[in-house]
Amino acid sequence: MTGGDTVTIDMTSGTTERRSGPPGTVRFTGLSDRVKDVEIWLPHHERTELVALRTDAPVAPVPDRGRRVWLHHGSSISQGSNATSPTASAPDRCASGPPATRRSGRAES
Predict the structure, then answer these.
(1) Which residues contact 3 (CB under 8 A, 6 or more apart)?
(2) Band of the pLDDT at 18, cuts 50, 70, 90?
(3) Cβ(89)–Cβ(79) below 8 Å
(4) According to the model, what pLDDT value does residue 17 have?
(5) What angle do CA 93, 61, 22 make, to 5 degrees?
(6) Which residues of 15-28 are buried (b: 16+ CB within 10 A; e: fewer)?
(7) CB 35 within 8 A of CB 41
(8) Region 49-72: what's the mean pLDDT?
(9) Which helix (H) or strand (E) holds 36?
(10) Rounded to whole angstroms, what are the CA distances from 88 to 92, 96, 98?
(11) Chain-wide mean pLDDT for the chain?
(12) Using CA atoms in the order 33, 34, 35, 38, what is the torsion angle rounded to 10 degrees?
């Protein structure tokens, strides 16, 4: 995807330079006409702003299937700033770990 704002950080001086750009567009084409769950994983270590969401079909929240949901507000580390991929962040590791890990809210190696 191209477009969007960029922030350049000079790590030696600590200065930043922000450049505004036009929004980028992502399209999902070739999907079947049947009802489906669509899960979009945003970058885990970058700021992302959803400017608009357009569809050619109705959109609704996923029905409750009894799955636990973890909404996390915490440190940059627990939110994934040091994760090597979106699935390596602490919240994702807890969500996919054994039940005891999920209940305690801790990531285990």
Answers:
(1) 21, 22, 23, 24, 25
(2) very high
(3) yes
(4) 95
(5) 80
(6) eeeeeeeeeeeeee
(7) no
(8) 81
(9) none
(10) 7, 10, 15
(11) 76
(12) -60
Within a 13 Å sphere around the CA of 31, how many CA atoms are in the beta-carbon half? 12
Tokens (6 digits) for 80: 């994934």
The phi, psi pair for 18, rounded to 5°, reads: -110, 135
Report helix, strand or coil for 7.
strand
The two tokens of residue 23 are 């929004």
What is the pLDDT, as a whole number, of residue 27? Answer: 86
Q: Residue 42 is which amino acid?
A: L
DSSP character at residue 87 = G
**CB-CB neighbours of 45 under 10 Å:** 14
Residue scoring higher pLDDT (97 or 61): 61
As a whole number, mean pLDDT of residues 74-93 equals 70
Q: Which two tokens stand for residue 72?
A: 């996390």
Phi, psi (rounded to 5 degrees) for 9: -115, 125
Confidence (pTM): 0.47
Answer with the residue of higher pLDDT: 47 or 77: 47
